[in-house]
Design a protein that fits this description.
It holds the Pfam family Hydrolase. It comes from Aureimonas endophytica. By secondary structure, the chain is α/β, with parallel strands linked by helices. It is built from 9 helices and 6 strands; from the N terminus they run ββαααααβαβααβαβ. The protein has a 6-stranded parallel sheet, sandwiched between helices. The longest helix is centred in the middle third of the chain and has 19 residues. The N and C termini lie far apart (41 Å).
């Protein structure tokens, strides 16, 4: 029987009975929202398109939603570059793809600089390393961005494998995300546990393959 439990912190998660760990990245290993807002502010400063900050944010959100709907289920649906390109095209900018790249770079440079790893998550991954558990991050996003995040968080040495929706062509909770992670870790589903912050996408998606689940709620991290 698959075991699914909710934990208030990483320290409570037992790992003694597993051979490998699957873990989400965004809002599991760090807090996303603050970094996103800092990134969006930086993009606005780079090229506000004559809008005020509120209007810029609204147009960005609409563009992101449109890209997500058009490319639903693919890693590219998370692309900030495509959202900024849609904004630049709608605004009638010349060479909108160039403006999109500048906005995308400003966003991610500021986003990454603001990232702070959750201390409990880092200690949890360290505990997994001491116990000999191999770790695979399973995440909906483009691979390059998620690699940069792991490097910025200083967690690369604690993570053996990365599985992104860009790589598999599907987003969580699609089974291919978890099957790919199991294959890379070379472990059976019943000997793995998936840790994440979303019940349906992370925990129930993994449970459908027989992977145990640990739902955690990340505490906000101050700057």
């Amino acid at each position: 029987m698959v075991d699914i439990r909710r934990y208030e912190g990483f320290a409570e998660i037992p790992i003694e009975h597993y051979d490998g760990l699957l873990i989400d990245l965004d809002d599991t290993l760090y807090s996303y929202e603050r970094c996103h807002q800092i990134g969006l502010d930086a993009a606005f400063e780079a090229c506000g398109m004559g809008l005020d900050a509120s209007a810029f944010a609204k147009r960005y959100r609409a563009a992101r939603d449109a890209v997500t709907a058009r490319l639903e289920g693919q890693g590219a649906c998370r692309s900030r570059l495509f959202a900024f390109q849609a904004m630049a095209e709608a605004h009638g900018l010349r060479q909108p793809y160039v403006a999109a790249l500048e906005l995308d770079q400003a966003y991610w440079n500021a986003f990454l600089a603001a990232m702070r790893p959750d201390p409990e998550a880092r200690e949890f991954l360290t505990r997994c390393r001491r116990q000999g558990l191999s770790v695979a991050v399973v995440t909906d996003m483009t691979a390059e961005v998620q690699i940069r995040k792991l490097r910025q968080l200083g967690l690369v040495d604690l993570v053996e494998h990365l599985v992104t929706s860009e790589e598999t062509g599907r987003e969580k909770p699609h089974r291919s995300m978890f099957e790919t992670a199991l294959r890379k870790l070379d472990i059976r589903a019943e000997r793995a546990v998936m840790v994440g912050d979303q019940l349906v996408k992370d925990i129930e998606g993994a449970a459908a393959l027989g992977i145990h689940g640990a739902l955690v709620v990340l505490k906000d991290i101050a700057a």
